[in-house]
Amino acid sequence: MAEVRARVKLNVGQHSHIPAEIVSFHGLKDGEEHVALIFNEADKNEVPLIRMHSECLTGDVFHSSRCDCGEQLNECIETMHEQGGIILYLRQEGRGIGLYNKIDAYVLQSQGMNTYEANNHLGFDDDLRDFSDAVLMLQAMGLNHVKLMTNNPRKLNALNNAGIEVDKVVGTHAHIKDGNRHYLEAKVKHGSHMLDMEKVPEKK
Ligand SMILES: Nc1nc2c(ncn2[C@@H]2O[C@H](COP(=O)(O)OP(=O)(O)OP(=O)(O)O)[C@@H](O)[C@H]2O)c(=O)[nH]1
Ligand SMILES: [Zn+2]
After folding, report:
1. Which residue has its alpha carbon closest to ligand 1 atom 12?
2. Residue of 43, 104, 127, 133 marked catalytic
3. Which end of the chain has fewer CB atoms at under 10 Å, N or C?
4. Could you tell me what the cofactor note in this record states (predicted)?
5. Is 30 tagged catalytic?
6. What's the predicted TM-score (pTM) here?
């Protein structure tokens, strides 16, 4: 069992205009400092929208052209600002292989491998992530019934297997840009992602 350690208000988003709360935890298992961001007191709603977002320093912070992580994170923050929701920000950089190994994988991708081939070439499986700490975080916040924002069936399976009831899966948009099309196509073809490459975000 994990427990909430601290919960405090902060504003987030590109203009620090979105009210939220950040939550830390005691008793998580993998030793990483995972956090939750709660929008509009979503944990008090009956069935909150949640996202399990794996850390991507290059995408989330630097808006790298190689992936869609930063855009997905912004999309979730905007959606949850409107509807309420909870982001579990999971410190699982590089699908669990870590930042330096991901950069090594990028070197191989620059030479023509896809994202999974590069992982395998380095001696890693396609995806090392385990979502049991995400389940502990949900349980610590008293949630066993959610809507899930993802295109990744592994995340849905992880919740189902842990007895968390998922009412609905909400896909994110395809954030295609110069440099990430092959990455997104590999996720659809080899990673079974339910990403609709035609579902582009509306221009604001
Ligand atoms: N190993 C490796 N990891 C990558 C690469 N590109 C992005 N990542 C990592 O992939 C993870 C993306 O995770 P999520 O944002 O949870 O997305 P997802 O599993 O693709 O599923 P969605 O919920 O549909 O977005 C992050 O940890 C990134 O750092 C890559 O080329 N190689
Ligand atoms: Zn990324």
Report:
1. 54
2. 127
3. C
4. Binds 1 zinc ion per subunit.
5. no
6. 0.93
Let me know the angle formed at the C-alpha of 135 by 133 and 138, rounded to the nearest 5 degrees. Answer: 110
**Ligand 1 center to residue 187 CA distance, Å?**
9
| Structure tokens, 56 | 């991507």
- Closest atom of ligand 1 to 149 CA is 23
Distance CA 88, CA 150 (A): 12
ipTM: 0.95
Burial pattern 104-134, b for ≥16 Cβ within 10 A else e, equals: bbbebbeeebbbbbbbeeeebeebebebebb
- The residue whose CA has the least distance to atom 9 of ligand 1 is 94
Write the pLDDT tens digit of every residue in 3-38.
Answer: 999 999 999 998 999 999 999 999 999 999 999 999
- Residue 181 a catalytic site member: no
- Domains belonging to the chain, first-starting first, are 3-92+129-189 (3.40.50.10990)
Centre of ligand 1 to C-alpha 149, Å, is 14
Q: 112-125 pLDDT, tens per residue? A: 999 999 999 999 99
CA of 174 to the centre of ligand 2 (A): 13
Tokens encoding 3: 């427990």
